[in-house]
């Protein structure tokens, strides 16, 4: 497994990757036994023999294979987006046979588990606002949705503190327009003037701040691990199949396409090959394949030929972000919201013992290497601490306790969601590129995928503007409020 | 109708009966029945595939679910009603339907539905009547019911004691709709957690907060200390009835918060650690009278990763 992780480090730039015509080699150990998917033809006698073989050899009866040979919907990646998609597919449309393939059940590098877990409605694009609002709606009634029959109801502790976006004078008008748009969508955001800020948050230094926007209802933070755990429990009760394995190859079916320029080949994705920890490689056929691999979605797409045979490629790559835990004895206590500074640094309270979680996004030139999840403490000293100590003077007296790093599934073109089917491989669906907002939008994306698969269109939130075709048509959708 | 027609035809046009071929005409009822039988709308398949759990727990779950949905349906907010009668009277009407009591600002009488089921409230808009107190103890109030309090800013007393469906989201809605609250009673609600205490500071005029027997609140004492700082007039009733925290705050948080366990605390280089000043060696909380851990040391701990499933 170690060599599998070593293989994962892409160190070439995006432009260089476009020039590659060969997919990255995925050899696997040579002794891997290949288990055929369902495409082989079995005669009736062979099926009977297979059924009765355990009786004669003394094996356990009725053992299902580790990875199914055929399934309706195959979800690559078991983070929040994949789990939510499986939940909505099974909860609303029980006819689907859903399988989730996740290579690491410990979720040691999954973006969901390493995120701060904040939910905010303050975006600049209406559809983003609606998606976050659906997450809030779902969390209001999560006990009714996610209680497994016969077990204790799950816990998802939501802290209703709200996000506070500070704006200097030159961005005040933009903030006002954004808040107007958000209120039109139904989010309860308000604008606070400098005087109101001074009254509500006396511990804040308001140098250079003109106004701020605050979410009064439905914004806050929660622990995404609890939500994924609850969703997973409910999924297992509903009959979703969880498989541990790594997708290594896609299998195709070619059909001749008669064009005026000759006979071309039209490929269709049939299924995937999955490497299981027990040493075998299983073939799995699927009608629909959902790519929810998070930061490694670009690699999965390249395995499917997107970016290799068909262009454009999926412009999603992992970007490392650091999160630091600090301790400050005199910091703001209950009235500390999720504060987003003008410099891009953010800070929020964690618990009541004077601990805070902070971080910042590095500039484009100073992007850290994604080879591993080591933390750069210089970044804290040079970028994060000056900003937060300037904004909240109490943090001059703070101590860095610990830190961790996680990956953003960064959409290099416009940092927004990519959802929907690929124009050529119509049974390959994307759910990638959330660039740090996956936890907020994951539930809405799951429901949108269910609607796309069942109704062939989006019924509740119209996400057709976030389709993959916008990269070929050169119409990026830029989101300005990124943290 | 057809038999009469046949008798007439038999009498008059008997020879022409065979050549008359009238198409079969369906009535409106018959047409509707055929359309229903042969319609394949998108949601049809949901009913075909729905699985029914007929075990005792399954049946009980279905019954509870339908009861809950019934309450949600009945407590839906209808803006037209609020426009017609004013938000205070519309909210009072809905509260009285669910065995609640209300009080207005003009007198000290608690209004309740009469035994016959009629309502004592005026039926038309009265600008002088403002809703002041709401008593919903032991009722089935749902989150959709809180929408009715939109526009009732004069409410100062809310009691949601022993309501089994009340969660922290109810208090979040109260913060939005009734910021002038002075008395809040959530005693005996099993689903109320620490998030309620976190939000309590947003009621700037809160005087009494009753959290007796709220088993979901785990850090009641600590929150009381913090709320004392932010709201000096506040009296919190019921902290003694909650379970005590056996561990000091620092250890309790380290155990229960996944975020504080992420990351390695061992390998921070010296020059970064030196950012702290000398006074932060001991973490003292101002006005703290409880036994909370005083020193926070940088312990060398192994990497803790939470294992899922």
Would you kindly provide a brief summary of this structure?
With 483 residues, chain A is an alpha/beta fold.
Counting DSSP H or I runs of 4 or more residues, the number of helices of chain A is: 13
What does the largest sheet of chain B look like? Answer: 6 strands, mixed
Outline type of chain A: globular
The chain-level structural class of chain B is: alpha/beta
Low-pLDDT stretches of chain A: 1-11
Could you explain how this protein is built, in words?
The complex is a heterodimer of chains A (about 475) and B (about 300). Chain A is globular and about 80 Å long. Chain A starts with a helix and ends in an 11-residue tail after the last helix. Chain A folds into two domains: about 70-110 and about 225-315 and about 415-470, FAD/NAD(P)-binding domain (3-Layer(bba) Sandwich), CATH 3.50.50.60; about 160-220 and about 320-410, D-Amino Acid Oxidase, Chain A, domain 2 (2-Layer Sandwich). Chain A has helices at about 1-5, 15-20, 45-55, 80-90, 125-140, 140-145, 170-185, 195-200, 225-240, 295-305, 375-390, 440-455, 470, and strands at about 35, 70-75, 100, 120, 160, 165, 190-195, 210-215, 220, 240-245, 245-260, 260-275, 280-290, 315-325, 340, 345-350, 355-360, 400-410, 420, 430. Chain A is of the alpha/beta class and about 475 residues long. In chain A, strands 1, 2, 3, 10, 11, 12, 13, 19 and 20 form a nine-stranded mixed beta sheet that branches. An eight-stranded mixed beta sheet of chain A has the order 7-8-6-15-16-17-14-18, with helices on both faces. A three-stranded antiparallel beta sheet of chain A has the order 4-9-5. In chain A, α4 runs parallel beside α9 (about 225-240), α4 (about 80-90) packs parallel to α12 and α5 (about 125-140) crosses α12. Chain B is built from twelve helices and six strands. In chain B, strands 1-2-3-4-5-6 form a six-stranded mixed beta sheet, covered by helices on one side.
